[in-house]
UniProtKB/TrEMBL annotation:
Membrane-spanning segments: 46-65
Keyword Transmembrane attributed: yes
Record-given protein name: Delta carbonic anhydrase
Keywords from the UniProt entry: Membrane, Transmembrane, Transmembrane helix
């Protein structure tokens, strides 16, 4: 029997054979996937390599820029010529008080509430917060014991680890003993208690020098309207460079006494140092601590006087006068770490303040006849 070429059976077999042929000659899509992955990985590797090289170049550039910046900053900090206040102190030598035709009011005096000096003057102290008179702090330093006298707060009845000084014929002060024998000391506060560990426990000082736990110190913040306020040169040692930074002798000679008292002043606050963190204050750099809750900077005496220090006495007068004094009448406890933080901040200043990282000697209490009769009382709130 013959086979019909149009037979459905032949058509089925032919289609089946063609399918088998197509299947055998055409590779599945999955056969190419490993090669695609390799190609993708190579591309990714190339991209990452280029990115890494780019980041490396950027990092080197940033490091070079940072090093250059540090070198520039280091050069700036060490270059006295870049310090516009360096050497601007106006020189006024101490004078024998008895030789002065017109007595110059002196500091530090008695600031006990109700006290009035005996030297008649026609100048009044600046009783505004100093910043309201365009003045800024230009230095901070402190004295061993208090230079000022506030009865019941810092006086001959206070105490400390090295004792106190008596109130002599005219409050003349004697040199202290032990390691402070080179410094003339002032009066002590009434807080010290040898049986309380916070007054006796040793503190590991990192930045301040020559400090003692339990001791009394009077801190001074000189302010000036002629300082380099708001710049890297604001704080200076010696403080005279900060006070006269933008004031030359020709201009100074045109100022009246009241102009000087309005534009130059010192804030003063007395502390007993303790090893107790509950008395920590983070910022002693910018001026007197004013804290209503703790009673700090609330009872302030105002008067006009002079610069202080143990090179002056009741025989040798300072000629940096008249300047305004704002003195906290109370003595306060403060932690040793507060002072050490202050010394750390001083080390960060553009000018070298290392000569103020330790206590200075105290002037003897100024006699009544050299203290101005313009005392005022006000708080700084």
């Amino acid at each position: 029997m013959g086979v019909n070429p149009q037979s459905p059976v032949l058509e089925l077999d032919h289609a089946h054979d063609q399918h088998l042929l197509d299947t055998m000659c055409t590779a599945p899509a999955s056969a190419f996937q490993p090669h695609d992955k390799i190609r993708d990985l190579r591309a990714a590797n190339l991209f990452l390599s280029l990115t890494t090289i780019g980041l490396f170049i950027v990092t080197l550039s940033l490091l070079a820029m940072e090093k250059q910046s540090q070198l520039c900053l280091h050069s700036l900090l060490l270059d006295d010529d870049a310090n516009v206040c360096n050497g601007t102190k106006l020189a006024f030598e101490n004078q024998l008080c008895a030789d002065l035709e017109v007595p110059a009011p002196q500091a530090g005096g008695n600031v006990t509430n109700g006290y009035i000096g005996a030297l008649e003057v026609d100048v009044v102290p600046n009783t505004l917060p100093f910043y309201q008179s365009s003045m800024c702090p230009v230095n901070v330093h402190w004295h061993l014991g208090s230079e000022h006298y506030s009865y019941g707060q810092f006086d001959e009845n206070g105490d400390g680890p090295h004792g106190n000084i008596p109130r002599p014929e005219w409050a003349a002060r004697t040199l202290t003993e032990d390691k402070h024998e080179e410094l003339q000391a002032g009066f002590r506060c009434h807080h010290y208690n040898a049986a309380d560990p916070k007054f006796t426990t040793t503190y590991d000082w990192k930045h301040c020098k020559g400090m003692d736990i339990g001791e009394t110190y009077e801190v001074h913040w000189p302010h000036s309207a002629s300082g380099a306020c708001g710049t890297v040169n604001q704080y200076q040692t010696p403080h005279y460079d900060g006070i006269f930074c933008k004031l030359d002798m020709d201009t100074f000679s045109t100022l009246a006494a009241q102009d000087i008292a309005n534009a130059i002043g010192v804030q003063s606050q007395v502390f007993t140092v303790v090893n107790d963190e509950s008395y920590f204050y983070p910022d002693m750099m910018r001026g007197m601590i004013v804290d209503e809750k703790m009673g700090m900077g609330q009872d302030v005496a105002f008067y006009t006087g002079s610069t202080t220090g143990d090179t002056r006495s009741n025989e040798v007068c300072s000629m940096y006068t008249p300047i305004t004094w704002q003195v906290d009448r109370k003595c306060h406890l403060i932690s040793a770490s507060s002072f050490d933080k202050l010394c750390y901040d001083m080390k960060l200043q553009r000018d070298d303040m290392s000569n103020d990282l330790h206590p200075h000697g105290s002037r003897e209490l100024v006699s009544d006849d050299l203290v101005a009769n313009n005392q005022a009382r006000k708080d700084l709130r």
